[in-house]
Amino acid sequence: MTTRQRNVQLGRAAVWTFAANDRMNQMLIEHLDPAAWRARPPGKVRTIAAIFTHVHNVRSKWVRLTAPHLTVPRPLNRAHCTPRQARAGLAESAARCGEMLAEALGEGGGRIEKFHRDGWARPWPAGLEMLCYMLSHEAHHRGQVCMLAHQLGFPLPIGATSGIWNWEKLWKECGSPGGPGSDS
Fold first, then answer.
1. Which one of 35, 62, 145, 147 is separated from 7 by 20 to 30 angstroms, measured CA to CA?
2. For the chain, what are the domain ranges?
């Protein structure tokens, strides 16, 4: 296998992995009790609505700063965003992040050379660290959502919380021909 072929394979795996990551977010919103969406936690804690709009808005910032040639998704307003709007916005921002990852990690021939996390942060070379950072950011917020829903009296069903760990199923739902460790 040539270096180019390996890079293309890496880019595709990154796209499928980020798509599976978004599917996890979508599953949590799908199974969340609607009353939990805007429930006010005590203290200076974000609502679940604010957490998911933050995830979308940060993704949009990554695209705007790292791949400005792509269509930047419109921001979501945490005060007025519905679960349906959040799901649509997250799907759109996940698609743009997928395009950005493909361009940065292989399929785009290295068109994207730097990952800009934020305007204040030093850019990183585009690579696996970029994907890892993106996934870590979202996993952190999924953990917040699961914990917050439970603390507010709206625990997510076990099918949702265990379903986000069924990577083989998630990868296949997101277009991967075989998932991790497959020859495709």
1. 62
2. 3-173
Q: CA 47 to CA 39: how far, in whole Å?
A: 6
pTM for the predicted model, two decimal places = 0.92
Q: Give the class (CATH, top level) of 3-173.
A: mainly alpha
pLDDT of residue 49 exceeding 70: yes
Q: Give yes or no for residue 184 having a pLDDT over 70.
A: no
133 CB-contact burial (10 Å; exposed 0-12 / middle 13-18 / buried 19+): middle
**Dihedral angle, C-alpha 67, 137, 117, 48, nearest 10 °:** 80
Instruction: Give backbone dihedrals phi and psi of 98, rounded to 5 degrees, phi first.
Output: -60, -45
Q: Which of 2, 93, 85, 3 is nearest to 38 (CA)?
A: 85
Is the distance from CB of 173 to CB of 155 less than 8 angstroms? no
Q: Which residue has the tokens 């429930």?
A: 39
From residue 103, give the alpha-carbon distance in Å to each of 51, 78, 162.
Answer: 28, 30, 32
